Amino acid sequence: MRKLLFLLFLLPGISIAQDHESNIRKIYDAELSAGHTYNNLRYLCKEIGNRLAGSPGAAAAVEWTRQLMESYGFDTVYLQPVMVPHWVRGGKDIVRITNSEKHGSVELSALALGNTQGTGPSGLVGEVVEVKSIPELKELGEKVRGKIVFFNGPMDPTKVDAFEAYGGANAQRSIGAAEASKLGAIGSIVRSLSNTINDIPHTGSQRYNPDFPKIPALAISTQDAELLSTLLSEQPDLRIYLESHGEMKADKLSYNVVGEIRGSEKPEEIIAVGGHLDSWDVGEGAHDDGAGCMQGIEVLRLYKEFGWKPKRTIRAVMWMNEENGLRGGQEYAKIAKEKGEKHIAAIESDSGGFLPIGFSSTGTEEQRAKLMSWTPLFKPYQVWNLEKAGGGADIGPLRDQGPLLIGLEPDSQKYFLYHHTEADVFEAVDQRELELGAAAMTALVYLLEQEGI
Amino acid sequence: MRKLLFLLFLLPGISIAQDHESNIRKIYDAELSAGHTYNNLRYLCKEIGNRLAGSPGAAAAVEWTRQLMESYGFDTVYLQPVMVPHWVRGGKDIVRITNSEKHGSVELSALALGNTQGTGPSGLVGEVVEVKSIPELKELGEKVRGKIVFFNGPMDPTKVDAFEAYGGANAQRSIGAAEASKLGAIGSIVRSLSNTINDIPHTGSQRYNPDFPKIPALAISTQDAELLSTLLSEQPDLRIYLESHGEMKADKLSYNVVGEIRGSEKPEEIIAVGGHLDSWDVGEGAHDDGAGCMQGIEVLRLYKEFGWKPKRTIRAVMWMNEENGLRGGQEYAKIAKEKGEKHIAAIESDSGGFLPIGFSSTGTEEQRAKLMSWTPLFKPYQVWNLEKAGGGADIGPLRDQGPLLIGLEPDSQKYFLYHHTEADVFEAVDQRELELGAAAMTALVYLLEQEGI
To answer: Which candidate, A406, A453, A449, places its Cα nearest to that of A308?
Structure first.
């Protein structure tokens, strides 16, 4: 590695000041010894809990994070109003095999997908057609008319980056029901997006096609997806009862929450850092994405603890409604544009509070090269990969305004044990891993505000 | 990174054959899709459980791993007899504050250290003197005579590598009681070696000085260490009752378990890979070190699954008695020397079944340079650091025979949540992380048997 380090120092236009190393050490030491991230996350998870956009939990999270940032004495703390979709689950979700020759009636672990229209209390019954993907559905064509489509494409276990496996399988969840409806299906079941076989169903966003009926769509656990598939292979006339109660209500007023420390030399250049404050309506939204929010706040809190004045303006942002609308991210970018703000970088942590191993980015070649030139400063902290392309959902809408978009990249092995489930609770987060993420983000914000990008 | 890759190809004497890349991909694909490591670990943990050297559990583990390797059809499977120390805990360990003005009698979460002599059923009572380290104990000198010494040095939370923090704190556990005894102390309590504050006591090895009395030595949980320290600062005449029942019995016959696939081109060159089969007598020895044993067996199993014939001899070794004697590692090296065997490399996985991020090594500069030249082959699998110095306890005795000693290096953040505790159970191991470690070890063994070192 020494060779690479040497090369980087030779690149024109890049200087790494000597004191950066010691300031980054100071950040890590403070965070690992007496950081606030973990205890703040505990409060968000245990005292507020889940917080789907438009819910009372989301309102509580908005008010609490505003008060928390005020208590830390940031220069400005404010709310950005934004209208958000308001989906409610409405009742218990049921997926039941009704006529198994082997087992009779079999209850499967189920959770309606977000934004879906429920069956209502009378439910619906139908025969089941299993497919592994949307292309496979399309090949079946008219054969699914009047049936319930069962999407059973597993996440590819051979992908070391679990998000790649997720990317390869999530179309069946996000648009599977819409595609099935086009072909006349009456309902849809999807295998939970998890790389582990267990009994926990995973919800997540589903988008209807407005030109076709809004059929119910529910996820079942991977274990039950395996069971259903086995039973179907033995008994193709299996029938399923579906019941769900989801309803999309009128949009509600909610908020992005913003805290800011003004830059001392170039206050007009802004670096945004944070995560999304909303979560799904199950579990506590600990990894997704309480972790990212608490890490974003911690970045600014450490500046206050050290008495550091950033050269450029740094801003902690809790975006609202990433899960089922992205309205907060869109509104944040719209306001920035209207105000003529100049974001030079935006960092989102929305891949869980796990061990940070790198930063992904989207921007110009020059921006990305400058980011990568900082790799040697992060390696002592096991953050080694600054080459990956990526970013974050909430910061995406800022793209045409020119900032470098950056995602914190934690190791992904365990993310899909928790994602969008009742298991995504505070206890699933490791204190040191969460703190290492907060420290890595603070170190990066520090380099960005010092050096620009 | 591309630049580095390019440089490495230019280094003289190093060639990375094109097909190595695809064979390593094959190893990872097989392991992540249908590896046996996780289910084998389940059996070892759940059906056999903990297995301190000399215990019935250790005997069962020897027999089961022998049968398991035979069932996989390795060329040879055999046992290496070795006499091991036989320590028994003997009963419930008690550390109790007897005279707290605030709380009266307070029971602390305690576990006697391994190899210690117990108090017996009558226990002992004494005043407590707190120190943070052995140097601090030595400064106190005669002041500890007739007292119980309380070692309360925390692991340094700012060390990103938790093993470094462990290294900085473990003298108080391994020789604290011996040093206290030299000064006339009657007993010793040590803060558990953990970087987390919780209620779980951690046992571990303790070495007496044969010239001084064998005083009892017990660990208490970090939480209770904090409590005891606080109470002591308010009430220095606090008294503690200690009770433990440990006893070192006569040495017992046990075994290293070895499975081998003979090399097709250079069978005399041996690559050993594995972990230690014994564990402490609490929990299930899942991370420490069932994981390493099952990963070692998996390396050879994958060769059988693929029908691969290694050029050099590869050997899975389960060493016995790492925890409280290292007799197995010593015996293995002694036998290798007597037989004139030539180990070119020995790999130990004994840092938990967590996400593998690198390999550490000890050997000549040339050996280490060749190992590091393989970094680009591991980076796609997030194994990025092949530079660290290190190895493993059981393979250490081989050092003077010239092999490159290699340790699998998983991320260390969570290791000291489980190490030497009742919490080190199968459920604490993540399937994908364990499998990634097995795949990394197999890939490395593959490169070693193909290319030599």
So the answer is: A449
A3 vs B26, more confident? B26
Give the model's pLDDT for residue B17. 61
* Separation of alpha carbons A343 and A360, rounded Å: 18
* Prediction ipTM score: 0.92
pLDDT digits (tens, 9 = 90+) for A7-27: 444 444 444 566 999 999 999
The residue-averaged pLDDT of A254-273 equals 98
Q: Is the pLDDT of residue A254 over 90?
A: yes
Query: DSSP assignment of A58-114, as one string?
Result: HHHHHHHHHHHHHHTT-SEEEEEEEEEEEEE--S--EEEEEEETTTEEEEE-EEEPB
Which entry of A31, A260, A269, A322 is annotated as an active-site residue? A322
Tokens 């120390």, located at residue: B85
pLDDT of residue A7: 47
- DSSP states of A281-312: SSTT-IIIIIHHHHHHHHHHHHHHHHT---SE
Q: Which residues contact A320 (CB under 8 A, 6 or more apart)?
A: A53, A58, A62, A82, A84, A254, A255, A256, A257, A276, A277, A278, A327, A328
- How buried is B265 (Cβ within 10 angstroms: 0-12 exposed, 13-18 middle, 19+ buried)? exposed
CA–CA distance, B209 with A192 (Å, rounded to integer): 58
Q: How far is CA A33 from CA A39, A322, B155, B166, B192, in A?
A: 13, 32, 11, 16, 18
How is chain B split into domains, by residue range?
A: 2-87+250-451, 90-245
> Is A353:A287 a contact under the CB 8 Å cutoff?
yes
DSSP labels for B104-136? EEEEE-EEEPBTPPP--TT-EEEEEEEESSHHH
* B181 or A7, which is more confident: B181
Mean pLDDT of chain A: 96
Whether A348 is a known active-site residue: answer no
Residue B32: list chain A partners with CB under 8 A. Answer: 157-158, 160
Q: Which whole-number Å values give the CA distances from A370 to A271, A349, B85, in the listed order?
A: 15, 20, 57
State if pTM tops 0.90.
yes
Residues of B annotated as catalytic (active site), given as ranges? 322
CATH number of the domain at A2-87+250-451, please? 3.40.630.10
Q: Does B90-245 match B2-87+250-451 at the fold level?
A: no
Q: Tell me which CATH code domain B90-245 carries.
A: 3.50.30.30
**Mind listing the pLDDT tens digit for each residue in A183-192?**
999 999 999 9
Measure CB to CB from residue A432 to each of B4, B385, B413 and give the nearest one: B413
- Tokens 């009430």, residue located: B235
Q: What is the pLDDT of residue A31?
A: 98
**Residue of A29, A38, A413 to mutate for B, most B C-beta atoms under 10 A:** A413
Q: Which residue among A1, A380, A413 places its CB closest to the CB of B430?
A: A413
H or E element at residue B80: strand B76-88
* Token representation of residue B242: 């200690």
Q: Rounded to an integer, what distance in angstroms lies between the CA atom of residue A76 and that of residue A212? A: 46
Q: What tens digit of pLDDT does each residue of B375-414 get? A: 999 999 999 999 999 999 999 999 999 999 999 999 999 9
Q: How far apart are CA B81 and CA B327, in angstroms?
A: 10
- B217, B116 in Cβ contact below 8 A? yes
**What does the pLDDT average to over B421-437?**
98
* CB–CB contacts below 8 A, A to B: 73
Does the beta carbon of B22 lie under 8 angstroms from any beta carbon of chain A?
Answer: no
Helix or strand holding residue B222 (H, E): helix B222-234
* SS3 at position B338: helix
What 8-state DSSP symbol labels residue B341?
Answer: -
